[in-house]
Amino acid sequence: MKRAATRGTRKGSFDRPQHDHARCIADALQSAGTVCAAQGVRLTEQRRRVLELVWQSHRPIGAYEILDQLTDGSGRRAAPPTVYRALDFLLEHGLIHRVESRNAFIGCSHPGTEHVVEIMLCTDCGRAAEIDDQRIDRAVRAVAAEIGFRIERQTIEIAGRCGHCQARPAHA
Amino acid sequence: MKRAATRGTRKGSFDRPQHDHARCIADALQSAGTVCAAQGVRLTEQRRRVLELVWQSHRPIGAYEILDQLTDGSGRRAAPPTVYRALDFLLEHGLIHRVESRNAFIGCSHPGTEHVVEIMLCTDCGRAAEIDDQRIDRAVRAVAAEIGFRIERQTIEIAGRCGHCQARPAHA
DNA sequence: AGTGTATTGTTATACTATATCAAGAACAAC
DNA sequence: GTTGTTCTTGATATAGTATAACAATACACT
């Protein structure tokens, strides 16, 4: 599969606070359509809406937060399995990532490409950034190789304070 | 604080299946006593029992599994806050680690020392090994430095198949 | 023994996630 | 376009994880 171009300002670092997030969302939805088409699966309206809600949030969003925003036109709230099914689909097709340390989800910054998921989480503004760098993965693989461990999945989540937040007084 | 000697067969890799685990547990409890004394906090009977149950399990253990085994002499089951309070204490004093990707806990392999927590989890036998290697941390810090991120906490959990499990047919 | 602090008990409840079965929508073949 | 099949969603119930709040007890110090 061909490597999708990195979108918006998300390229391995934190977005600038003033970036055009509407654009991020639109790009993400379009990429998702492309990825699903390529994989021969359906990006249904339900799944599209969940993906959109994930992207709309600047921070990792929980399943129940999504649920609260997922009304069915007539304003009735969906049931949990509805959201979890959509999330499972999006995870399975690499359109979102799960943030284990928060029980929450973020949009994938480069869908349609195989990659190890490495996330930085700002404890001040709450935002997440997906990192795209080989060094951590290389180190992990080197260590695993030495002890004869066959890697299946990596969970790498670094919490701390992002550059933008360090450049101003601590958050209220 | 001085660096505690690494105990038993746990030194950055998976225990041999036939290792003397009773010894691991005994050593861990003794270290815990030392650490608590050094920090001027109380390793109460409740906390000691929870720590022992964590160590008795060869795999990451969940809070409710601990709860099920934590009877109060007369066979009555404790309530959740009892276990969570003990776990919080043990986490806070570096005697156990939380495995985010499993909502579970493991005993810390080198308590009383400041260290980044890096865990390998075998998806076959279910066991965990705490890694003690600078390379991953160095890579993470290098990446963080480049994007101006100030690290507060790292969650590094690598799932896969351990060497012992690869050396024999897949688990039943 | 009396006082203040830390720990544990107890009840209730919030939050996260899945199992199960029924109903509906999309698709392929005819 | 009808039929049969498969995928998707709806709906209800329940499992699993974690914390809030307040009461009671134990401990440490004088």
User: What is the assembly state of the chains in this entry?
Assistant: homodimer
Helix content of chain A: 25-40%
What's the SSE pattern of chain A?
HHHHEEEEHEH
What is the end-to-end distance of chain A? 44 Å
Main beta sheet strand tally, sense and closure of chain A: 3 strands, mixed
The CATH architecture category of the largest domain in chain A equals Orthogonal Bundle
Structural topology:
The structure is a homodimer of 172-residue chains.
Chain A: H1 21-39, H2 45-56, H3 63-69, H4 80-92, E1 96-99, E2 104-107, E3 118-122, E4 128-131, H5 134-146, E5 150-161, H6 163-166
Parallel strand pairs in A: 3-5
Antiparallel strand pairs in A: 1-2, 3-4
The structure holds a DNA duplex (30 and 30 nucleotides).
Task: Write a compact overview of the structure shown.
With 172 residues, chain A is an alpha+beta fold. The first copy, chain A, folds into 2 domains: 93 residues, Winged helix-like DNA-binding domain superfamily/Winged helix DNA-binding domain (Arc Repressor Mutant, subunit A, Orthogonal Bundle), CATH 1.10.10; 58 residues, 2-Layer Sandwich (Dna Ligase, domain 1), CATH 3.30.1490.190. Helices cover 40% and strands 17% of the residues of chain A.
Provide an overview of this structure:
- The structure is a homodimer of 172-residue chains.
- Chain A is an alpha+beta fold and 172 residues long.
- Chain A folds into 2 domains: 19-111, Orthogonal Bundle (Arc Repressor Mutant, subunit A); 115-172, 2-Layer Sandwich (Dna Ligase, domain 1), CATH 3.30.1490.190.
- Chain A is built from 6 helices and 5 strands.
- The first copy, chain A, has helices at residues 21-39, 45-56, 63-69, 80-92, 134-146, 163-166, and strands spanning 96-99, 104-107, 118-122, 128-131, 150-161.
- In chain A, the strands form 2 sheets. Chain A has a 3-stranded mixed beta sheet. In chain A, strands 1-2 form a two-stranded antiparallel ribbon.
- In chain A, helix 1 (21-39) runs antiparallel to helix 2, helix 2 (45-56) crosses helix 4 and helix 3 (63-69) packs across helix 4 (80-92).
- The longest helix of chain A has 19 residues, at 21-39.
- The first copy, chain A, is globular.
- Chain A starts with 20 loop residues before the first helix and ends in a 6-residue tail after the last helix.
- Mean pLDDT of chain A is 91; it is low at 1-10.
- Chain A binds chain B through residues 12-14, 100-101, 118, 120, 122-123, 129, 131, 133, 135-136, 138-140, 142-144, 147-163, 166, and chain B through 12-14, 100-101, 118, 120, 122-123, 129, 131, 133, 135-136, 138-140, 142-144, 147-163, 166.
- The structure holds a DNA duplex (30 and 30 nucleotides).
